[in-house]
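Input (Co-chaperonin GroES):
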Amino acid sequence: MKLEPLSDRVVLKQLEAEETTKSGIVLPGAEKEKPQQAEVIAVGPGGIVDGKEVKMQVKVGDNVIYSKYSGTEVKLDDVTYIIVKQNDILAIIK
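Output:
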């Protein structure tokens, strides 16, 4: 199966959480915070949203930072993806 987002939606695959801090402390599973970084897997076509034209600013393969509690999680072929609106993406990591 393949996810194909509509309108201004973007499909993200969450990057792995850091298991150690910068100082080298190993974090147990419960202490790991949900990462806010993800890789763009698919991008919708954009178009008219709420009467305004939306041009997509991200592309497949970009690494991005997105809002912490945004999006909808979808599990497909044992992989969890997050579908967010483009305006929930805060920055592109370069």
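The mean pLDDT is 87.
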